[in-house]
Amino acid sequence: MSGLFFIRYLPEFLKIKEFFKNFSDRASSFTKCISCRFLVSFMQHYMSSGASEDDVGAVAYKICTMFKIETPRVCAGVSALFKRELTQVLARVALDPSEVCSFLYEGCGSGTPGHDWVVPLPPFPKPTPTPPPPPKPHAPVLRVLHISDVHIDPYYKENTSAVCGEPLCCRATSGQPDTREEASGYWGDYRNCDIPLRTLDNMLAHINKTHKIDYVIWTGDIPPHDIWNYTRNEVINLLHTASKLVYKYLGHVPIFPALGNHESAPVNSFPIPEITGNDSISWLYDEVEKAWSNWLPGTSHTLKLGAFYTAEVYPGLRIISLNMNYCNSLNWWLLVNSTDPTGQLAWLVAQLQMAEDKGEKVHIIGHIPPGEPDCLGMWSSNYYKIINRYESTVTAQFFGHTHSDEYEIFYDKSGPKPRPTNIVYIGPSVTTYDNFNPGYRIYTVDANYPQASRVVIDHETYFANLTEANLKMELNWQFEYSAKKAFNMTSLLPQDWDHLTYRFEQDDTLFQKFYRYFYKSATFSTPHCDTTCKSKYLCRLRRGRSNDPLFC
């Protein structure tokens, strides 16, 4: 990169703080592209001059503090944690800055050589899609609990500052609040704070006492958001702590977990199988196998290979749990090789073909939703193609990650008009981070009788009003809404969710109801959603494939 380039675009580079603050927003922008290319070029040139790993960490710290991206304490922690991954990845990658940034941000370049790949499908013809029969009156159903994004903070402390100026507050290190309004509550806080363990314990005890559950899906993210402090021991301890707590209250029914992007140290760091030695991810997957294999007999091989598995729930119904960290664009190891890491998608195709052959129905669970901008476009496109091929077998998908209550629709775009084929349910988070009430969901599934469709026929969401709980020092878990009743839906098939998005366009009162539920009825400064905002939400609801421009 020439000196003229640096001079010409220095004003844009000086917006680097904006680049980092909005790193999870993958909408392409000139500022992001220039900042990204500037940083990558600088690091590549610096490393080629003989800079060591410690040198890279030191310059990263200087950039972080110079541009006041975070506090010096956070800058020091992040620089120390990521310096090895950054140097190891850049040393293995033969891509120029434009190609690296194109990988990180779709639309920020002309493409990335070597990262264009296709998972082949079997040559067997696709069965003609037919709508599932409506459930028989009084037919048996399954009640399925969905919990996600617990983000428990073992260092949470009430009456500390909830506005500490760091990515995570409400800790002793956050300092004392300047005003009463800035103090953290006993059960949690709407601002940049995760929840104490007691809040999760209270919720699980309530569920155990109140609801009849047939099985549990648990879609990832256990550690708190203090990513500058992560250590392997810390995330392992939290994995086992949370797993034991869930088992304590819900171990009388099957539990099906999925791995989140915060489960590793550093965060988002999930090396591909080619990476061996101390940089290998086996340290985590071995612990995942220890924590979960008793719940999931016969899954040790794929758990240790890539933290994914399949299990029969009941005759005719199968769970497939995917490790979505191999679609995560913030997983820098994918720059080395993003082609179906661990062969997970090829394995998924094989599992779905076997299920189709046996007449089984499948529910897929994972953490990062496939339509999220965080999911790499090539991975997402392959997954989208697979789901549409097996639309008669996959009757629902369940994900987390966004912390919000929402959904994504898949479409078959081969005809003159897009046809809805599948639905992704994105479950509400237990954590309050940030601006959410804590919540959980229960799905009612048509199941356990001959010719049962295994589709979701309704879901109910529950939450606790955090403002009220902190005032009364007592959590009151309450019913929020039923999807069928709140949105006046006759069923919850993909075409019904598609129709609902068009109703949102015409009926703003109905959309504002959805928007309130999106935040789990939080009472703390929920942002107003105007017409422009509404268009963005409708886009994300119709986007089962990341960065798909069809409806946006």
Automatic annotation (TrEMBL):
**Compartments where found:** Secreted
Q: What class of enzyme is it?
A: hydrolase
Q: Name a Pfam family for this protein.
A: ASMase_C
- Record CDD domains: MPP_ASMase (cd00842)
Stated EC number for the protein is: 3.1.4.12
Cofactor(s) needed by this chain: Zn(2+)
Q: Which GO biological process categories is it annotated with? A: ceramide biosynthetic process; sphingomyelin catabolic process
Recorded GO MF terms:
acid sphingomyelin phosphodiesterase activity; hydrolase activity, acting on glycosyl bonds; metal ion binding
Q: Which UniProt keywords apply?
A: Disulfide bond, Glycoprotein, Glycosidase, Hydrolase, Metal-binding, Secreted, Signal, Zinc
Can you give the residue ranges of the Saposin B-type domain? 29-112
Q: How is the cofactor bound?
A: Binds 2 Zn(2+) ions per subunit.
**Binding annotation for Zn(2+) 2:** D221, N261, H367, H401
Primary location: secreted
Its GO CC terms? Answer: extracellular space; lysosome; membrane
Q: Which residues bind Zn(2+) 1?
A: D149, H151, D221, H403
Q: Which reaction does it catalyse?
A: a sphingomyelin + H2O = phosphocholine + an N-acylsphing-4-enine + H(+)
Record family assignment: Belongs to the acid sphingomyelinase family.
The function of this protein is: Converts sphingomyelin to ceramide.
Q: Under what name is this protein listed?
A: Sphingomyelin phosphodiesterase
Source organism (scientific name): Caerostris darwini
* Gene name of the encoded protein: SMPD1
